[in-house]
Amino acid sequence: MTVGQDSPVVAHSTFLGRPARIGSWDELSQGTFRAAKARIEAGDHRAAADLLEVSLEEADELRDVYERWPAEVARWLTGRGVDPAELEREQDRLRSVIGDVAMTGIQAEWPEYRDAALDAARRCRDGDSRAIELVDEVHAIWLGIHDRAVDRVAGHIDIAVRLCGEDILGELWDFLMADWYDAHERRFSPENQPWQVSANQLMVAIVDGFHAHLVGRDRQGDIEMIEEPDRIGFRFAPCGSGGRMLDAEVTGGEPRSAAPYGFATTTRRHDWAWNEVGICSYCVHCCQLNVVMPIDRIGFPTRVIDPPIWTGHPGAATACTWWVYRDPSLVPDSVYHRVGRTPGNRGGKA
User: Is the pTM of this model over 0.90?
Assistant: First the structure.
């Protein structure tokens, strides 16, 4: 991709309520750290600095929920009557496989990433000859922090399955995402804004969020965009969170659904997991937030997802594709049936 020197790469997003990347969809499909290095190579160190700073904004939502969710899972389990001593034993077992650093939580590690990103941004603006190396160093720091945080969250979801069975997964994710559900419904209901506006915002949120998840084989955050007559696709091969759980290549031959981690995947069909066997317990939240909950509350899915499926073979494909339809009326009946729903009010024409 060719970049123009001194062209802006970041602006305030009214939708997100903070600074965010701007540009064409082709530009936005490129990971933020890769985009920063491209700007340095083009001689635009100021833009690279802006991108390093906005990487913190992209990651901040993950910092928030990845810090909160493990404690909230534990609170939910004790509220269901799980013996605190048994929960502690399971957490000790998790610590033995993901390590002490991961179990301390993302907040404890966040200052290292923040300080490194801000220092690298300052040095980029000063024209430091090591600018590209600095971007790589910041990327490596965030990659480690992100993946340890995902392991901690997914490990706690796995604890819930071990202690209460997989049937609780839908209810657990409903508890963890209750505030997201309400915000999602308020914003994207056709009663509140036209679908054309919603569709664009949903796509912006996808690229913004998955940059921070560092999707893709080389974990740069690159997204494959697919344009079809009725929909726009965003493919992560793999996603850096749920997809990573299943992927041998990006985990050094240790997918988290295999030993020694053994993080749970569905063994039976459930509406909240696309009625597929082999859905990562972490991935369940994508089905609930984007498909099941919107159908139930506003009449149609806001984003349609073709998830990765664990087959027990670490070499299996782990790509995940999210689709935003140009109009809700174009979503096929099969999407509803896949989650045990019947097509009804699809929102009409935008």
Answer: yes
